[in-house]
Amino acid sequence: MASTTPEPARLPDTRPGADPGADPGADTNLGWSLAVVLRRWHERMESALSDLPHGSRGYHVLAAVSPGEPPTQAALAERLLIDRSVMTYLLDDLEKAGLVRRRIDPGDRRVRRVCATEHGREVLAVVRERVEHTEEQVLAGLDAPTRELFRHIAQRAAVAIQEASPATDPCAAVRQVVGDGAEGPVGTANRGGRRRTGRGTRN
Amino acid sequence: MASTTPEPARLPDTRPGADPGADPGADTNLGWSLAVVLRRWHERMESALSDLPHGSRGYHVLAAVSPGEPPTQAALAERLLIDRSVMTYLLDDLEKAGLVRRRIDPGDRRVRRVCATEHGREVLAVVRERVEHTEEQVLAGLDAPTRELFRHIAQRAAVAIQEASPATDPCAAVRQVVGDGAEGPVGTANRGGRRRTGRGTRN
DNA sequence: CGGCATCGTTTGACGAACAAACTAGTTTTG
DNA sequence: CAAAACTAGTTTGTTCGTCAAACGATGCCG
């Protein structure tokens, strides 16, 4: 292609913020920078995690669920910036894949607490390495210590934003925590209705 | 609400990466962090720039166009991660608002070069302050020097990504650059057809 | 002059996000 | 204790943005 378009001249510097430090008022690119980095992250991650039910989303959920106390779906949705309604079928698929389980909180039976299964933790461990590797690639333009620094600052900023979130509540209690898993696999819900799996062969 | 839900207990640490440095494998939150920050940025920006034709997008375009040589639409779209087809009506609206102008490159009449009008530059100057102020708010969780550092690193990462972009090519020449603006306001194109302003009353 | 490539525009379709209605369960109030 | 009010989760429908393909116009090259 362009086998005969030998044009050595290039756009000099129209890029929003190329040549940092050169133009004084050009450091208003935060949105652009984040969008570029995040998009690349997303691209690579989706192809790297294509075997997880919902790609990078599934990973986020799995990672958010695996460590401490099983959070409620609402709490999960809020942290991960995912709509409640989306969270529903996202968890449907993760559960179908045997990665997480929904258990009814005995203290408040409206609430489903999401916890990772053994298999889920195993998968997470494997996938996490892939994620780390991919992230390194995305930030390949930075040297190692700067990468680390960037991650750290981004995280601090994000945590601060989430904590200062308007609707974010002070009430997401754990009660006493289930302890044993003798709650039955929900049983409720899922009473028929079309599967909104999307993704599959549509039309 | 919850006027009487005095539950001091909180989720200890389910957040993907709260308490940084505590758990070794938890620094895989880059995607989450960026998503949170970017979303907040977007929210605030859209409300702060509601008077620009396409909000933060319009700002990006205006800012990318104002400094150096007028880029082609394709180059703009590539830099700003906007689809060609979207760029079309985005520029339609910016032009309608008198902020930019499309001029046919005399050297290659297929190409439209986008440049800011006088009014566009004025508006940009005003808006830029608003943007900076809003960004400070978004990064309020960081102290001032860290904010600056974060911006700087993010930009470096983004620039590196864009330069290493796969499809990004070495051919986006400027030729000799127009020089004078005696090209007439395109005239071509826009030959009837529905306005895809969307947005309006659909069905 | 005839094929091939590129830029910009238009059109169409698909998927994700958002909002609203509904059920089940819990808490509050008269 | 019963009714009202509220929350968690699911379901449904609508809307919006993004992406892919087709088209007209222009330029390049043999």
UniProtKB/TrEMBL annotation, chains A, B:
GO terms for molecular function: DNA-binding transcription factor activity. InterPro entries: HTH_MarR-typ, MarR/SlyA-like, WH-like_DNA-bd_sf, WH_DNA-bd_sf. Transmembrane segments: none annotated. Residues 192-203 have a biased composition (Basic residues). It comes from the Bacteria. GO terms for biological process: response to stress. Residues 27-159 form the HTH marR-type domain. Pfam families: MarR_2. Residues 17-27 have a biased composition (Low complexity). Residues 1-27, 181-203 are annotated as: Disordered. SUPFAM superfamilies: Winged helix' DNA-binding domain. It comes from Nocardiopsis sinuspersici. This is MarR family transcriptional regulator. The lineage of its organism: Bacteria, Bacillati, Actinomycetota, Actinomycetes, Streptosporangiales.
